[in-house]
Amino acid sequence: MSEATLHPLAGKPVPRSALTNIPRLMTAYFTLQPDPAIPTQKVAFGTSGHRGSAFASAFNEWHILAITQAVCLYRQHAGITGPLFIGMDSHALSEAALASAIEVLAANGVVTMVDEHLGYTPTPVISHAILTYNRGRTEGLADGIVISPSHNPPDDGGFKYNPTNGGPADVDVTSWIGKAANEFLAAKLAGVKRLPFARARKEACIRSYDYITPYVADLDRVIDMDAIRAAGVKIGIDPLGGAAVRYWQPMIERYKLDATVVNDIVDPTFSFMTADWDGKIRMDCSSPYAMAPLIALADKFDIAFANDTDADRHGIVTPSGGLMNPNQFLAASIAYLCTHRPDWKASSAFGKTAVSSGMIDRVVAKMGRKLVEVPVGFKWFSAGLIDGSLAFGGEESAGASFLRRDGEVWTTDKDGLIMGLLAAEITAVTGSDPNQLYQSVTADLGKSYYARIDAPATTEQKAILGKLDPSKISADELAGEKVTARLTRAPGNDASIGGIKVVAENGWFAARPSGTEEVYKIYAESFLSADHLAQIQADARAVVAKVFEGG
C-alpha cells in the first residue's frame, strides 16, 4: 500500500462512469504506434514480462507483433523445436494480443497449442502443459507464452515468455527477446512475419488443445482430493472474473467436492470488483479491499479462496480470521507440507523471496528443514523445483507452488489453484483452518509485524537503488538495534536482489524500485511491536534518502 490516504471508494463498488471504456481501449491497441525512442513505449521485460496500457502506447499491436517475432527468433537461436503452449487471461487486451501473436506464430510455422474454444488459460496450466509435454524428452522440447498483466487494472496488458523449464524466463532470455523486439519496433516492423488472423487460424501449425482436462485430471497427484471430499469441507471459490473461471466446475464434478463458485461473471471492465485501496480496480486477491465481497461470505464456508486474473496468485479467507496475510499462509502451508508429504526428500529445501516474512525462516527452522532465500521473481525457484532440491517456493505477493505428492515437479510458475486447494486440504486433514494452524505453529516463535509501503522515486533514483553497492549503506543501527547484515545479493543464490536489505536481530527492511511506477517499495518487519515496525520504516526511508543524495 502507498503512504497516500485511503481512497473513499476502497472496498466499495466502482461507479460505472469510472469503468474502462473497452471500445476506446481496443481502438488504442490497434491505432496507436509506440515510439521506441521514448523509454516508456519500448518493450521492457520486468519480473513478469512486458506490461502496460494501450492508452499509454505501452501495450499495442506493434509491441505484440515485435515480441512474438523475437520469440520465434529466440526459439531458433536456442534450438527449441517442440510446440509452443499459449494462453491468455480475461483482460480485454489479452484477447487482441492472442490474435496478434497467432498471426506471427503461424507465419513462422511454429506449432502452437491454442485453447480449443479460444478460451482463457491460467498461467500455471501453461507451465503444467510445458512440463508434462517435456517429461522424458531431451529434444524437441516445448515452451510457452502467457498473455496476462496479472492482477493489474482492466486497461493493462501483459505478455510473458516461459522457456522449456516451464517457468518465467531468466534475465538473459528476456534481454535477448527484448533487444530483438525493440529492433523490430525501430525498423517499423520490417522483418516481422505475419498472416491475417482468419488464415493463420487455419494453418496446420495452429492447433486446438484441451487445456482443462489434463490439468484437472492431474490434481490429485499434488493435492489430497480424497481427504477434502471425505471431510466434506464446504468451499467457496471466487475466480475474480479471471482465467480460472472455466476450471472450477469440471474440478468440482470430477472430485465430487462440496464447493461453490460464488461468482462466475467474466466482464472486461471488471465492474463486479470492489475498488482497491487507491480507488482503482485490481484483481488483487491479497487486498482486503478487492476481496471485500468474498470476505463478507467467510462464515458461509469452512474455507474460501480467490485467484487473480491469470490464477497464479491466491487469497485465502478463513472463518477464524478473514483474509489471511500472504506471508502467514505461506508459513502455515510450509508447516503443513513438512509433516504431510512423506514421499518428499528430507533434503529438499523451502524457498522464499528476500522480501518475504522472517516468520517463514523460523517455521522452516522449527521443522528442521533448509531455507533458500532468493530475489523477487518466481524464476529463481524453477530449477530447484525441477530437480527436487526445492520442495516449495513462495513469494510475499501471494504466489507459490510446490512438488507433487511423490516429490516430482508440478509447475515451475506460481499456481494459485493448488494453493487454494491446499487450504481446503489443510482444513480437511487437521480440522483447523489455515489461520488457526498458523497461530498454533507460530505460538512459540514470536509475533510478526509486517508491512509494505510505497514511496516516491524518480527514474534516476530507482536506477541508483537497483544497482547499489552495499558499501554505500552507512547505517550501523536499525530501530535502535545493531545492523547484522547489509545485503544487495540474496543469500540463497548470490543473485542481485535489485535493491537493498538491512537486517537487525528483531527486524529488517528491504527497498526495491518499482518496475512500473515512479515509486520504490519498502518491505519491513518487526518481531517486537507495531511501534518498532514504524521506527524501522522511518529508518529505511532515511537510509534510502542518503543513498539518493550520494548518487
Automatic annotation (TrEMBL):
UniProt keyword annotations, A-Z: Isomerase, Magnesium, Metal-binding, Phosphoprotein
Cofactor: Mg(2+)
Presence of keyword Transferase: no
Keyword check for Amino-acid biosynthesis: no
GO molecular function, one term: magnesium ion binding
Pfam families associated with the record: PGM_PMM_I (PF02878), PGM_PMM_II (PF02879), PGM_PMM_III (PF02880), PGM_PMM_IV (PF00408)
GO biological process, one term: purine ribonucleoside salvage
E.C. code: 5.4.2.2
Start and end residues of each Alpha-D-phosphohexomutase alpha/beta/alpha domain: 43-182, 214-321, 325-441
Gene3D superfamilies, sorted: Alpha-D-Glucose-1,6-Bisphosphate, subunit A, domain 3, Alpha-D-phosphohexomutase, C-terminal domain
Stretches assigned to the Alpha-D-phosphohexomutase C-terminal domain: 493-541
Domain of life the protein comes from: Bacteria
Stored InterPro entries: A-D-PHexomutase_a/b/a-I (IPR005844), A-D-PHexomutase_a/b/a-I/II/III (IPR016055), A-D-PHexomutase_a/b/a-II (IPR005845), A-D-PHexomutase_a/b/a-III (IPR005846), A-D-PHexomutase_C (IPR005843), A-D-PHexomutase_C_sf (IPR036900), A-D-PHexomutase_CS (IPR016066), PGM_a-D-Glc-sp (IPR005852)
Similarity-based family: Belongs to the phosphohexose mutase family.
PANTHER family named in the record: PHOSPHOGLUCOMUTASE 2B-RELATED, PHOSPHOMANNOMUTASE 45A
Protein name per Swiss-Prot or TrEMBL: Phosphoglucomutase
